[in-house]
Amino acid sequence: MSLVLIAIGLLMASALAALLLSRDPRLATICGVGGAMLAGLAGLIPSLRILLAGDNESFVLAWCMPGGSFHIGLDAVSAVFLIPIFLLTALAALYGGTYLKPFWGKRAIGFSWFCFNLLTACLILVVVARNGLLFLMAWEGMSLASFFLVVFENDKKDAREAGWLYLVATHLGTAFLLIFFALLAREAQSLDFDRIGALAPGIANAAFLLAVIGFGTKAGFLPLHVWLPEAHPAAPSHVSAVLSGVMIKTGIYGLVRTLILLGHPPAWWGWTLVGIGLSSGILGVVYALAQHDLKRLLAYHSVENIGIIALGLGLGALGLSTGHPLVAQLGFAGALLHVVNHALFKGLLFLGAGAVAHGTGTRDMDRLGGLAKTMPWTALTFVIGAAAIAGLPPLNGFVSEFLMYYGALLACLPGGMTNPLPAVGVVTGLALIGGLAAACFAKAFGIVFLGEPRTDAARSAHECGLSMRLPMIILAAACILIGFGAPWAVAALKPAIAGLTSVPAAQIFGGAERPMLLLMELIIGFAAVAGVAVLLGVLQKRLLKNRSVRQAPTWDCGYAAPTPRMQYTASSFALWFVDAFRWILRTERRRSLPKGYFPDAAFMATETPDGFRELVFRPVFTQIRWALASLRWIQHGRLQLYILYIAATLVALLIWYASCL
Amino acid sequence: MGLDTLFVFLVLTSIVLLGSSLLNSSIRVVALQGAVLSFLPLLVMEPTWAGRAVFLAALTMGIKGIVFPVLLLRSLREANVRREMQPLVGYSLSLALGIALLVLAFWLAGRLHGIGVGISALSLTAAFFMMFTGLFLIIARRKALTQVLGFLTLENGIYAFGLTGVGHIHWLVELGVLLDVFVAVFIMGIAIDHISREFDHINVDELDQLKG
Amino acid sequence: MNLISCLHMAVALILAPLMLGVINRTKARVAGRNGAPLLQLYFDLGKLLRKGAVYSRTTTWVFRAGPLIGLAAVLGALLVTPFGKSGAVLAFDGDLVLFAYWLGLMRFVTVLAALDTGSSFEGMGASREVFFSALAEPAFLLGLVGLARATDAISLSTILPSISAATWLAAGPALALIATAWLVILLAENARIPVDDPNTHLELTMIHEVMVLDHCGPDLGLILYGAALKLWVMGALLVSLLTPVRYGVVWQDALVFLGGMLILAVGIGLIESAMARLRLARVPQLLMGASALAVLALMLIMK
Question: Is residue A382 within 8 Å of A352, Cβ to Cβ?
Answer without folding.
Answer: yes
